[in-house]
TrEMBL record:
<feature type="binding site">
    <location>
        <position position="77"/>
    </location>
    <ligand>
        <name>S-adenosyl-L-methionine</name>
    </ligand>
</feature>
<protein>
    <recommendedName>
        <fullName>Ribosomal RNA small subunit methyltransferase G</fullName>
        <ecNumber>2.1.1.-</ecNumber>
    </recommendedName>
</protein>
<feature type="binding site">
    <location>
        <position position="82"/>
    </location>
    <ligand>
        <name>S-adenosyl-L-methionine</name>
    </ligand>
</feature>
<dbReference type="GO" id="GO:0005829">
    <property type="term" value="C:cytosol"/>
</dbReference>
<keyword id="KW-0698">rRNA processing</keyword>
<keyword id="KW-0949">S-adenosyl-L-methionine</keyword>
<feature type="binding site">
    <location>
        <begin position="128"/>
        <end position="129"/>
    </location>
    <ligand>
        <name>S-adenosyl-L-methionine</name>
    </ligand>
</feature>
<dbReference type="Pfam" id="PF02527">
    <property type="entry name" value="GidB"/>
</dbReference>
<keyword id="KW-0963">Cytoplasm</keyword>
<feature type="binding site">
    <location>
        <position position="147"/>
    </location>
    <ligand>
        <name>S-adenosyl-L-methionine</name>
    </ligand>
</feature>
<keyword id="KW-0489">Methyltransferase</keyword>
<dbReference type="GO" id="GO:0070043">
    <property type="term" value="F:rRNA (guanine-N7-)-methyltransferase activity"/>
</dbReference>
<dbReference type="InterPro" id="IPR029063">
    <property type="entry name" value="SAM-dependent_MTases_sf"/>
</dbReference>
<keyword id="KW-0808">Transferase</keyword>
<dbReference type="InterPro" id="IPR003682">
    <property type="entry name" value="rRNA_ssu_MeTfrase_G"/>
</dbReference>
<comment type="similarity">
    <text>Belongs to the methyltransferase superfamily. RNA methyltransferase RsmG family.</text>
</comment>
<comment type="function">
    <text>Specifically methylates the N7 position of a guanine in 16S rRNA.</text>
</comment>
């Protein structure tokens, strides 16, 4: 059932998936629904809705211009693995780091990675503000991605410290993306952002407004950022 919905949604969005990819998406869905019974991973469980609103929505971040072979990607505040895991299934060559602040979600992610046989994926239990102060992760990634975590000014402080100079931060945003972009102008500048490009996206069968906000990092993030845990939310830039 889910496999068929996924295939139809992908075709409607204009991408084709291999049998192996459909199998991986299907197994991911099964694990999501199974684990969701004992922990809060998603409010959406109906096959068609998961296919469109989680899986395809995650793939809207994909642009072959940036997702070159072996590109390093960090998904900050990944939750149930969106958008990182769908991107990894779609493009197995990416080197992926999934970061989340909740340990039980990280256990779920590790299970998904093992069950799907995904290679070059690291699951990290850390808050973004702490992870970005770790030399192993700070300014080490070509791309940072994030979806449904916080408003853009806060998200920039969470995600941009992970991005190398010349890399990009891709924020998957809903209908308020233009307003959020204006709000985030200062944060983008402070974090070292140099250029912003907004790419509107359309999900099959849905009328809502969505966009991927693509921020290029031109300068290193000052050492003072991110501020300590909780501060970006209480006092956004």
């Amino acid at each position: 059932m889910f496999r068929e919905e996924m295939k139809k949604a992908a075709e409607a969005y204009g991408i084709s998936l291999t049998e192996g990819q459909l199998e991986q998406f299907n197994r991911y869905y099964e694990l999501l629904v199974e684990w969701n019974k004992v922990m809060n991973l998603t409010a959406i469980t109906e096959p068609h809705e998961v296919a469109v609103k989680h899986m395809i929505d995650s793939l809207t971040a994909y642009d072959k211009e940036y997702f070159t072979e072996g590109v390093s990607v960090i998904d900050v505040g990944t939750g149930a693995g969106f958008p990182g895991i769908p991107l990894k299934i779609f493009d197995p060559t990416i080197k992926l780091t999934l970061m989340d602040s909740l340990n039980k979600r990280v256990k779920f992610l590790q299970t998904v990675v093992e069950e799907l046989g995904l290679q070059a994926v690291e699951c990290v239990h850390a808050r973004a503000e702490e992870g970005a102060r770790n030399k192993k992760y700070r300014e080490q990634f070509d791309l940072a991605v994030s979806r449904a975590v916080a408003r853009l000014p806060i998200l920039c402080e969470y995600c941009m410290p992970f991005v190398k100079r010349g890399g990009k931060f891709l924020a998957l945003k809903g209908m308020q993306y233009q307003e959020e972009e204006k709000e985030a102008a200062k944060a983008i500048k402070v974090m070292g952002g140099s250029k912003v490009n907004t790419r509107p996206v359309h999900l099959p069968g849905l009328d809502d407004v969505r966009a991927v906000v693509e921020i290029t990092k031109g300068m290193p993030t000052p050492k003072a950022y991110p501020r300590k845990a909780g501060t970006p939310v209480k006092n956004p830039l």
